[in-house]
Amino acid sequence: MNGARIASLRRGRLVRVAAALTLCAGTLSGVSACGSETGPPVVTWYVNPDNGGQKRLAQRCADASNGAYSVDVQTLPNDASQQREQLVRRLAAKDSSIDVMSLDPPFVAEFANAGFLRPFDTADVATFTDGVLDGPLKTAYWKDQLVAAPFWANTQLLWFRKSVVQAAGVDPGAPSFTWDAMIKAAEGQHKVIGVQANRYEGYMVWINALVVSAGGQIIGNTEAGKNATPDIASPAGDAAARVVGDLARSPAAPPAMSTAGEEESRSAFQGQSGSFMVNWPYVYSAAQGDVKSGATTQSVVDDIGWARYPRVLADQPSKPPLGGIDLAVGAYSEHARQAVDLVRCATSLKSNVDYMLDSGNPAAKGAAYDDPQVRKAFPMATLIRQSINEAGPRPVTPYYNDVSTSVQLTWHPADEVRAPGTPKETATFMSEVLKGQRLL
Fold it and tell me: DSSP H helical segments within 119-200, as ranges?
């Protein structure tokens, strides 16, 4: 091939490349014509498992955006710790596919401290906080910045069998009703109490609720990071240890208590030996579902009553557990504007009501509990709202996983928990873990 022919081919290629670059520089409906798909941005939402309610809500929000975005829902593992691990690994690698994530509130501080979350603009703060109950609102900030939007909240109630409390002659709704009184009542009726005492986050929920209800805290000075002060070795920690150990070693302990989670405790409560249970509000609709499936009878559901979480000390109001989900925008999202729009839609009052009715998970906004449909579906709606508003959050610290795991390891199994030995062991173990002197 001669030099003139080669030069001609090169000129032709340059013309084609220049034309392609010109096309790529243009846009079609705001989307680059090269290197990406046409159409609205796809916002990826990583959700915790539910009954599909978040996916249905995502579709409604996408439809309401009038084509501004579509939503791809990715479901995280069932276990909260596994959810955290998967998200941390992706975000540590600066994964831009994480646009919105459903976060367990205790992990918000850790993610924000690591720079994994995009703080909301000042102009959006009122949108995401107005009307939100006090409990979940405490979980949404880190270093005075709103880094997450409360989506749904949760709390535990004391559930009881009406026939059992009548036979025992006790009133679970009395202001002075304590764990000790409940254990004695169950023992007297040869019944069991449903709790979550497996070595997982649900056990930490129970222990923390006992400690804060007794006027203490598991760890203090959390702004000091790894130099925070474990405070569980205290009168409040000892009171919590006595409740756990006394129940685990009593006839009121259900079989295999130290491997029980929410569903195991619900099963024991609905069985013939059930008397009391601490658990989330979903158990009421779950029991009704069991009637439809034939797993239980309507008489069991009719026998279920509810009251505020029991006290540890008779003269001190309880601090019910706080759960739920906050929504946060990933720091590396390439669709931050659309992601914030999705969060705005998903956390609206209407979405709070719709999602509560669809999934059975309580709303974060107080006004949702006044909705007639909510009150019909949840006859204990007022109590749920009060419990969420007055709940005791788990420690807010960027090292929450270390704190929680330290408690779970040293308080398990439940029948070996004793005061003051167990709280002291936990404080020492936790301090060493935080300072890197000991591995989990």
Answer: 125-129, 134-137, 162-168, 179-188
Per-residue pLDDT, averaged over 392-421, amounts to 97
pTM above 0.90, yes or no: no
- Write out the two tokens for 307: 């009251």
Tokens 């658990």 locate to: 279
What total of structural domains would you count in the chain?
2
Condensed to tens digits (0 to 9), the pLDDT of residues 306-330 reads 999 999 999 999 999 999 999 999 9
Q: Do the beta carbons of residue 405 and residue 395 sit within 8 Å?
A: no
Domain boundary (373, 389, 405) is at 389
Domain containing 283: what range? 155-321+394-434
DSSP character string of 306-328: EESPPBSSTTS----BEEEEEEE
Residues 399 and 287 in one domain: yes
Decide the pairing of beta strands 274-279 and 192-194.
Answer: parallel
Amino acid in the structure at residue 363: A
Q: What is the pLDDT of residue 26?
A: 38
**Residue 361 falls within a domain, yes or no?**
yes
In a domain, 415, yes or no: yes
pLDDT for the residue numbered 38:
74
Question: Has residue 168 been placed in a domain?
Answer: yes
Whether 15 shows a pLDDT value over 80: the answer reads no
Take residue 1 and report the two structure tokens written for it. Answer: 């091939």
DSSP for residue 365: B
What is the token pair recorded at 163?
């026939």
